[in-house]
Amino acid sequence: MSNVLYEKRDGVAYVTLNRPEAMNAIDEATNAELEEVWCDFRNDDAVDVAILTGSGQAFCAGADLKTFIPKWENANMLDVRKNIPKGLGGGLTRGQHRLYKPIIAAINGYAIGAGLEIALACDIRIASENAKFGVFEVRHGLHQGDGGLVRLVAIAGIGVALDLTLTGREISAQEALSLRLVTRVVPSENLMQAAEETAQMIRRNSRNAVQSAKETIFELIGRPLDDALRLEALYGYSSLGDFSDARERLAKFIKK
């Protein structure tokens, strides 16, 4: 792989977009490499959490418009329908969004356009104080089509989704924090450390419980209250399995 760097250590998968000369914009080759990465991450029991970041000065500047626009301006409706099962970011935005292993976005610079859509598709977002965000698609005659609107509404609400989408304005890391688009803002030099600390916090918990919790949250979205409560009980209690992990953790807790 050349457009995506992928390594694993201490139970964590490190995924780095590696097109710094293009601000890590997603072209077809990068998307294909990311799809392979997420498939491997899903299937490798040696890793529990992934950290996604970008090389250079950007997290991701979105889709590579030099190839993206010609591809879709010549497309027909069948092409559009075939695209539905596979979103950007190797399917992270749509298609492989049911990865139940947690993914942390370490946002080191610009996360704009589809780059913001990819960041929003991650489970936890930690931003460098130098990070910048924006729905820049509207500047180019487009709007989000890979989960950006769905997740903006779910994460920040209709008002924020309308504001950012209709204006196409750039926002700072601190404003992104105030809008709940990210959970933390840290100095640039501390970004990966913060992401790694978060990853290890997750890894200290039960793997089954973590993955079941993420799956349950996905299942609860949009459900009526009674259905949501029923599903939470079903998924929560069944995630215990044979109770061996719970018993072992309880024994360690009692010893303390």
From TrEMBL:
Which InterPro entries has this protein been placed in? ClpP/crotonase-like_dom_sf (IPR029045), Enoyl-CoA_hyd/isom_CS (IPR018376), Enoyl-CoA_hydra/iso (IPR001753)
Q: Which domain of life is it from?
A: Bacteria
Under Gene3D superfamilies, the record lists: 2-enoyl-CoA Hydratase, Chain A, domain 1 (3.90.226.10)
Family of this protein: Belongs to the enoyl-CoA hydratase/isomerase family.
Q: What is this protein called?
A: Enoyl-CoA hydratase/isomerase family protein
Q: Per its record, what are the GO molecular function terms? A: catalytic activity
